[in-house]
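Hey,

The postdoc asked me to send both predictions to you directly instead of through the lab channel. I've kept everything plain text so nothing gets mangled by the mail client. Protein one:
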Amino acid sequence: MVSRAPPKVVRSLRIPLGYRRPLRGLLFPQNFPSPKGFSAPMTPPDWLQDAVFYQIFPDRFANGNPANDPPNVQPWGAAPTIYGFQGGDLRGVMQRFDYLLDLGITALYFNPIFLTSSNHGYNTYDYYRIEPRLGTLDDFHALLNLAHRHGVRVILDGVFNHCGRGFFAFADVLENGEHSPYRDWFHIHRFPLDAFSPGKAQNYEAWWGFKSLPKFNTATPAVREYIFSVARYWLEQGIDGWRLDVPNEIDNDAFWAQFRQVVKSTNPRAALIGEIWDIAPRWVNDTHFDGLMNYPVRKALLAYLNQELSTQHFADALEAVVRAYPFENLLSMYMPLGSHDTPRLWTLLHGDMDKLRMAFAFQFAFPGAPAVYYGDEIGLSGESDPDCRRAFPWDESAWNHELRAWVRRLITLRKGSTALRRGTFRLLLADERRRALVFLRQHPEESVVVVLNPGRKMRRLRLSLHEWGWQDGQKLYDLLGGDGRAFTVQNGCVNIEAAANEVLFLVG
């Protein structure tokens, strides 16, 4: 049974450099009552459903200020390593912002940008300070202002399950052992801590046993206070939401309910996206997140395109996701084809342009906010981490211009199509013999029939459309082909010819 006794305010904390004042009234009992007079919005922010995301790994996108490079910086484009830095920074993003605007994206997701000793930033040392290799707070404000002037939202990576060994509270525990006032900030089994020798953590809990990533004890009120204060601080600086790293490892619904209250009371239109790798409705509601990273659909799509999954099983996988979530949250899912945690799309699809075009077309047609991992749009390759974190090649001779033009076109089409952004999803055909899949995105303003033919032969498909509002004599035109092809509805049905490896976006 959860205790409802008032919490004890920790008065002996030594406030370190970089620690900000706690939020007023945010030392809650363990059942986390909501702030009086405020209820977190259930509906996801409207902009999230219309967004096209671009994910940036800060050290690898662009180097805009060599003066803040570390002395051991690698040459730009060198083979990525676990420890190496290549000089990417916030100024680099600003200097290349025209590239992003030309592509058409409307939202940026940044991997961690706070003080850290690593190139990835998931071992945070100070959540209130920008990593100096990436820039300053003024740089960050300048980037936010630039983005917002152009209607681009910015969300940050919130790593609140664990921190780095250099985080002030853990450093104090290492220094003072059982006498540290921060010993309850972590899950410590015995002293002294062994935090630097080889092997997994034994006497304290750490993410996947990595000694460099000690796990927070969010049952401690002061830890919750700190995390909530961090969340609010950066929203007050102007960010548009949080992507939450491994939130399922803080397995406490009440904690996340209060986190949402803090975020939505600061900015009701802020987005909350959870990194959950499975179908998990528990995490999508008015006490958790607006949407999740839709890895299950990504996994099924790539398996389907690589002929590792049958058409029917692919259709079943899609239906499972669609059925699992409320419609407004389905539209708010972050839909990736790649990320810093996966091999590159180009590599997984073996550089097959037909498959790559189809993968991106599906991504922009399926419900959710499509997300482009930096460099995927130009055919950047890479195996698993750290190889999937290569530097962006700004020499345009290294780009696949055909692929980038395709992605740019899809972004434009999605922006102009209410059905692709907000329409309902209905599976119309899963033809196992022909390996063809057809689904409908329908909105009162318009409807789009999406046809996928990943096979090596032209396929003739007959679809019944009368019940979905099409009338005899009505013509369907392909938005993607640009060749003026039209298919006419007759007797409530339409006969479609889809060329080998072709995708069609048909509108009436």
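Protein two:
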Amino acid sequence: MFSRFFIERPRFALVLCIILVLVGVISLYKLPVAEYPEITPPQLYISANYTGASADVVMQTVAIPLEDKINGVDDLLYFSSTCGNDGAYSCTVTFKSGTDSDIAMVNLQNAVKRAEAKLPSEVTKTGISVEKRGSDILAMFTFLTDGQNMNLMQLHNYIESNVKDAITRLDGVSSAELMSGIGIKKEAQEKVFEPFIQQDALRDSHAYKGSGLGLAITKRLINCMNGTISLESDIGKGCEFVVELRDITYVGALPAAVEATPVIPEEKMESFRVLLVDDIPLNLRVLKAMLQKLGIECQTANSGKEAIEILRNDHGFNALLTDMWMPEMNGAELAAAIHHEFSNVTFPIVAVTADTEAGANFSKEHFAGILLKPLTVEKLQKLFSKLKKKESGWSVI
């Protein structure tokens, strides 16, 4: 037998055993050994931004096309996504345990690429990022300065150029974010609560985005509650807003009645022509896309003055939808100017605003109703069904 060969030659067998042990010890340091087995399933993160769009618009135009393609990715376990009213979209995609994260990332990037043809151009221009990262924060570091050897702006620039990139390059770190307040200049603090006021840029072109309406609307709401809002700011450190409400009596939480929203079937209105007025081009494009889905023909104007010029040459509109908060000529001033200059214009004028107190802040004399943001196709269909039937009376939709 084969074993008899080694039994009759013990010295040869001993030398062979020693050689095998030495080869095993030497090879031990060359073998790839995982310190911990992969128990948690790998996760990838998708992010995109649709500037100016509401959460509902982001869901309809970004989330649904992307997630329709993500569903077919190999080894997909589940995914969860969120849409924000700031136009942000994020999605965490989880794969089965043991899935190679590099292969999963390639498959996910291919799925996102297939979905880009159905996404708005504003989203594809800013880019859709696919990253290897989880939803947890690994660590937070605080950097301070006494303001003598280095001011806050210099500290910000130093961290941006020397620290942030170095941390991002560490193994296991997906990304690093730098958070710091910019503050509001003293000369701008008096006007910052006025509509369309930003401290150093035009509306919708600011480096930090925004339209210059948030604080104006906030102050009006606080005034309606007999309160005050004050501002304290240090350049480079940030701002602190203090809201004081007087004579507030706590009565406890009131039970809210849940009412199901009826599903309204789409009704095409090909005979309708609508003039849309808004100073933000993106808002016009989103609203126009919604109305075209209902078969409504649209023409757009970027200001009240442009809308009046259009009406001087064309009176064939069935309705006019105007934003209430616009520089130079707001929605109420536009409606009054139309009724003053064009006595033969009989189409309804509808205010489009996110200000729930617009009925109290502006005169309702020249308006047929208010369309509250965020806008949906269902809201628009309800409005134009009412206008088509020529129902009278003030309405808020």
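Summary for protein two, as requested: The radius of gyration is 31 Å.

Thanks,
C.
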